[in-house]
Write a structure and sequence with these properties.
seven-stranded parallel beta sheet; 6 domains; Rossmann fold; Penicillin-binding protein 1b fold; 43 strands; alpha/beta; 39% helix
């Protein structure tokens, strides 16, 4: 049986199919959610392309997963965020998606395109001007010509290609990331012949799959001569345009692209020009689509008029295609509406009414019950499930009923056709879905040394903190190498060979406003500092390991395995869990089912779903008859958790209470009494839960949200409270991988690095305060049915600010701040959640965990006064649904920002992607310090030596305490040979430093081979200078492990110094490999060394190192065997 076979048998469908083939305009009524199925079934049956026009972008994304599965090759053409002011954002998600869709439509490489109505009027490049090139392996083509064409097509040059629209040229290789591709291309030339074409991975920059050809599509909607077009348009009106705009245009830079749209695009060119007459065009919910177009036109027209009044110049009037023209351009559409209504925009050829009832989604158990009822009533029932295991399970459960048809399909909702006595049910088995779901990786990549700039602080293991002053090419007696220049206190200068980059790192961790003190090159200051920090981290490691050991010795409650109720509770979660969430849930459950009390830290970025993970642990606790406590740092967050818990537990007999200043004295007393008697299962509260009069009957689990925000006294009381209970601490401060590894084995940490499905990054703007910008942003959000947070962080003037917003927008405005009474905050929050307020003017009271999915625009006044992590946390208050969210970080007009404030705002604008909290946490270490991660005392020690050095010392202390000792000595190699990376091989200085860092970190033979492969892959065959550099790095790595401290070339000899005198048998064995007289001899003494005579220093040294390592390994193996025998 085919999917939707019953729908295809309906006379109404047959009529609609026939009219569609004859290109008739049809009005289709009576359908709810099933209109999506009718439209896609039409396209599949008629073998035509489908164009779906929907009310908004959220609706488009909701439909896409089904259409991807059913029709394949489905794309969204998202609307444009018009920006008529000179404010910048680095988020180009929608621009990239539009250009990709245009490419697919031009080449007819799609089955379905979904267009939110507002995107229909966006002016764009016509199909005739849309450029693309196809490059084939083996063809003759000018290398320079390709590079020039890429620039013309809108590609921007970058030293490392990581995003669509970028290209890079180096040597005989061109890297380019074309829109619509999952991976970028690497095209290698031999002269003017295309030698090889392959894709490559973004994170490793290594080749993935070899290809025969590469199709490269246009990178931007506007043409490469856009600036010239605009200059030509405004040449007679120059007095109206700013001098700054004119200068930028002369240099080929677009100062504010959207203001000049009429000069760039013909007034009639939209995506409609890419639709073929043979395509099936469907309006789903026509009236909503029409309203969306009206709203779009009104908002853009109002914004242009408002800005024009304030003196901002605009050219022409055609910034979009008007609704009437859009409808006249679309020929013979199918108009879907649930209820019959008049539609003036089109003249129908046929009106068709369906009678198909929807079926709501239910839990798997409930679904099976409903299917049984329908089968008993004589219905033919089709059940779809995302996997074969589930379909087999359903068949077996329902005794292989002949009227039951099961199939694997990704269907969003079911339906009933009563006159055919057929029904379609959607079965979602979460366990199977989660097990099979494709893993999306959101890894971290932090290499602090790579983005170093002149003037940054740098740490050398032996000499301490200095200032980085660039990379210099040093020539000495004809030998050339690159050196990093570091300036220390008193002007002392050190030039570090680039093959020793493993000994230096960028200094991170001083904090805002703290002047980092440079060390002196001589003297023992740095040595003393390192010793002091080493002692401190040893103490910390000892304390942590001791606490960990104590906890292992305590016996707590061993929770039962999951019950049926637990499964039901988890099935009721309305969203799709991420794989990271599921992994963390399993780790927490395993802890709870162990007799040892849990003490686990759950880390995850803002909005990554920590609360749901915690609530599943709470439910497990309650199922065993134990009480659970959730501790929050603020009243508002406690209130938020309380509402979330009430909603999640509503179908289960669980008693939930809240203890905060939202409750009066008598209410609190009653709650405390019931807690003591066991009448409260889950208590949610602020620090009031830590009062001495709080007693539990049987506490099993404590959830602590943002532990670092509680004081020392509170934490001491927590320790008492949590003696035998399981403890789960939640933190939105992401833990860098290096710290996580350093703490492994002494602290249980679970990490959520993956964002929820269907979330979009927050589009972020940084700009000077402009009341017009504020009003436009608020009106734009409210026009699409949303709400706004407006952050004004001064209680004494917040009412005045709210009054201005109300007067300027005419909207419903509320106020929230920490000095309000419990009743006032409670009321205002209820109003916000009930959509009785359009704009909430508030302080940073919203920072901690507030979740209002309909609030999707955030405006912050004086954003430069807030910390970076704080800005990131507050930005996490928006973008918590499938709608696109916007954040505006504003600073006072004309204000000169401090260097730190400027860095913060640029960072918050730059890092908008998911998982950015980790990068922000690292950048925050640079700007603000490490208090949040390590506490005040340890952050002082980190500040003294820098993050990387601190992590190295902490790791050593933990390994030493746990008996894992890895003894290595440093090894320096000074040879009279050119060993460096030529600029002709790698031009970009930061990329050169990155490669130097990788080479200096070679530790194994595999590392060596891997880097050679990477160099060949990314840059072509390495020249002799790099081969020498690699071999020297390999010698150093072996030397470190076998106790060789240094190698010096003198005349035609290599002097190879050892840390201690080797055994005579080892000296004899090594000497046995060198048969020529005087080729190798050993000099004993305080400074013992081998002398190796050679004319080829690098290969001779590498050979010696390998022999020395081999002989040492043989002796170690013999010693181990002897020990085993004893």
């Amino acid at each position: 049986m085919e999917l939707f076979e019953d729908i295809s048998k309906l006379e109404e469908f047959k009529t609609l199919l026939e009219k569609t083939k004859r290109q008739k305009t049809c009005f289709v009524f009576g359908l709810y959610t099933q209109k999506l199925y009718i439209a896609s079934l039409l396209a599949k049956t008629a073998n035509k392309k489908l164009i779906l026009i929907v009310p908004d972008e959220a609706e488009a994304r909701k439909y896409k997963s089904f259409l991807d599965d059913y029709l394949k090759e489905t794309y969204i053409y998202p609307p444009k965020d018009y920006n008529f002011r000179n404010i910048e954002t680095v988020s180009h998600y929608n621009d990239n998606a539009r250009i990709e869709t245009l490419a697919k439509m031009k080449n007819r490489e799609f089955n379905c395109v979904i267009i939110p109505a507002a995107a229909l009027g966006i002016l764009t490049v016509p199909p005739s001007e849309y450029k693309e090139i196809i490059i084939k392996s083996g063809e003759e083509i000018s290398f320079d010509e390709i590079a020039s064409k890429l620039s013309e097509m809108g590609y921007s040059h970058s030293e490392t290609v990581e995003e669509p629209g970028q290209y890079c040229v180096r040597g005989g290789i061109i890297d380019v990331f074309s829109h619509g591709n999952e991976l970028p291309y690497r095209i290698e030339f031999f002269g003017n012949e295309v030698d090889t074409i392959a894709t490559f991975a973004i994170d490793t920059q290594r080749r993935a799959e070899r290809l025969d050809s590469a199709k490269i599509t246009q990178a931007k909607e506007n043409s490469s001569n856009a600036a010239a077009k605009i200059l030509n348009e405004i040449k007679d009106k120059k007095d109206k345009y700013s001098k700054e705009d004119s200068e930028l245009l002369k240099n080929g830079i677009l100062p504010c692209h959207d203001r000049y749209i009429p000069a760039l695009f013909d007034a009639q060119n939209t995506i409609i020009n890419y639709i073929s007459q043979d395509d099936i065009v469907c309006f789903l919910d026509f009236k909503k689509c029409e309203n969306a177009l009206n709203s779009f036109e009104f908002r853009i027209s109002e914004e242009i008029a408002s800005l024009a009044e304030s003196g901002i110049p605009f050219i022409g009037k055609n910034y979009f295609l008007k609704k009437e023209l859009i409808f006249s351009e679309i020929k013979h559409p199918l108009i879907f509406e649930t209820l019959p209504c008049s539609i003036e925009a089109f003249r129908e050829d046929e009106i068709i009414s369906f009678v198909i009832d929807p079926i709501d989604k239910t839990s798997p158990n409930k679904t099976v019950e409903n299917i049984k009822e329908f089968l008993d009533d004589g219905y033919k029932v089709t059940v779809t499930a995302p996997d074969k295991e589930s379909t087999e399970k359903i068949k077996a459960t329902l005794n292989y009923n002949p009227n039951l048809f099961c199939m694997k399909a990704n269907i969003p909702f079911g339906y009933i056709i009563k006159k055919l006595k057929t029904a379609l049910f959607v079965y979602v088995n979460k366990e199977e879905r989660d097990r099979r779901r494709k893993r999306h990786k959101y890894g971290e990549k932090i290499n602090n040394i790579f983005d170093i700039q002149k003037g940054d602080y740098i740490v050398h293991e032996d000499f301490g903190i200095g200032l980085y002053d660039g990379v210099y090419k040093i020539e000495n007696h004809g030998i050339v190498d690159d050196r990093i220049k570091i300036v220390y206190a008193g002007g002392d200068t050190l030039y570090i060979p680039c093959d020793q980059l493993d000994r230096i790192s960028k200094y991170v961790g001083g904090g805002e406003g703290i002047k980092v003190r440079l060390n002196k090159m001589g003297g023992g200051e740095w040595k003393k500092t390192k010793s002091k920090v080493k002692a401190a981290v040893k103490d910390m490691a000892n304390q942590l390991i001791e606490l960990y050991g104590q906890r292992l010795r305590i016996r707590g409650h061993q929770f039962s395995e999951d019950t049926e109720w637990q499964k039901e509770f988890e099935e009721e979660f309305e969203f799709e869990e991420t794989e990271d969430q599921l992994k963390c849930i399993q780790e927490i459950k395993a802890d709870m089912q162990s007799p040892t009390p849990m003490d686990r830290l759950l880390c995850g970025d803002v909005g990554f779903g920590k609360t749901e993970v915690a609530l599943r642990a709470v439910f497990k606790c309650v199922c065993d008859g134990k009480q659970a406590a959730i501790l929050a740092p603020t009243t508002l967050l406690a209130f938020q958790h309380y509402n979330t818990a009430k909603r999640r537990f509503k179908n289960f007999p669980v008693n939930i209470e809240m203890l905060s200043r939202f409750k009066n004295a008598s209410q609190q007393a009653e709650i405390l009494k019931r807690m003591k008697n066991g009448g409260v299962d889950i208590i949610i509260g602020t620090h009031k839960l830590l009062q001495k009069n709080v007693n539990f009957k049987d506490l099993g689990l404590i959830i602590i949200d943002e532990e670092q925000r509680f004081g020392v006294a509170h934490k001491e009381h927590l320790k008492e409270l949590a003696k035998n209970a399981d403890v789960l601490t939640l933190s939105a401060t992401p833990i860098p991988r290096t710290l996580n590894m350093s703490l492994s084995g002494i602290r249980d940490i679970s990490v959520i690095n993956e964002p929820p499905h269907d979330r979009l990054p927050v589009t972020t703007y940084v700009a000077e305060f402009d009341i017009g910008l504020v009003v436009d942003a608020i009106k734009k959000e409210v026009a699409r049915g949303g709400q706004c947070f407006y952050l004004h962080n001064r209680v004494d003037t917040i009412s005045k600010a709210a009054g201005i917003i109300k007067e300027m927008t005419g909207l419903r405005v509320g106020i929230a701040h920490g000095r309000m009474s419990k009743e006032e905050i409670s009321d205002i929050w209820e109003d916000l959640l009930d959509h009785e307020i359009d704009v909430l003017v508030c302080t940073t009271i919203i920072e901690a965990g507030v979740d209002v999915p309909n609030c999707n625009t955030l405006i912050i006044e004086d954003a430069d006064r807030l910390g970076l992590a704080q800005l990131h946390q507050i930005r996490g208050r928006v973008g918590r649904s499938s709608k696109r969210a916007y954040a505006y970080f504003l600073y006072r007009k004309g204000k000169i920002l401090t260097e730190d404030a400027y860095k913060r705002l640029m960072t918050i604008r730059e890092f908008t992607e998911f998982g950015a909290g980790l990068k922000i946490a690292m950048r925050d270490l640079e700007i603000r310090g490490a208090g949040n991660i390590l506490g005040a005392e340890q952050s002082g020690h980190l500040a003294a030596v820098g993050y990387d050095m601190y992590m190295k010392l902490l790791g050593e202390a933990v390994r030493e305490k746990r008996g894992i000792i890895k003894k290595e000595t440093d090894c320096t190699v000074k040879l009279k040979i050119n060993a460096y990376i030529p600029e002709t091989y790698i031009r970009d200085i930061n990329t050169r430093i990155e490669i130097y860092k990788e080479i200096s970190s070679i530790d194994t033979d595999e590392d060596y081979s891997d880097i050679v492969d990477e160099l060949i892959d990314r840059f072509g065959d390495p020249p002799p200078e790099i081969i020498a550099l690699l071999d020297i790095a390999k010698c150093r790595s072996i030397g470190r492990k076998v106790g060789i401290t240094s190698v010096v070339e003198k005349d035609l000899n290599l002097l190879i110094y050892t840390e201690e005198e080797p055994p005579l048998a080892l000296i004899s064995a090594i000497s046995g490999y060198y048969t020529k007289r005087g080729e190798l001899f050993f000099s004993p003494g305080d400074q013992c060394y081998f002398t190796l005579k050679t004319e080829n220093p690098v290969p001779s040294l590498l050979n010696f190192m390998k022999l020395y390592r081999s002989e040492m390994e043989k002796r170690q193996k013999d010693a181990d065997a002897e020990t085993t025998e004893k």
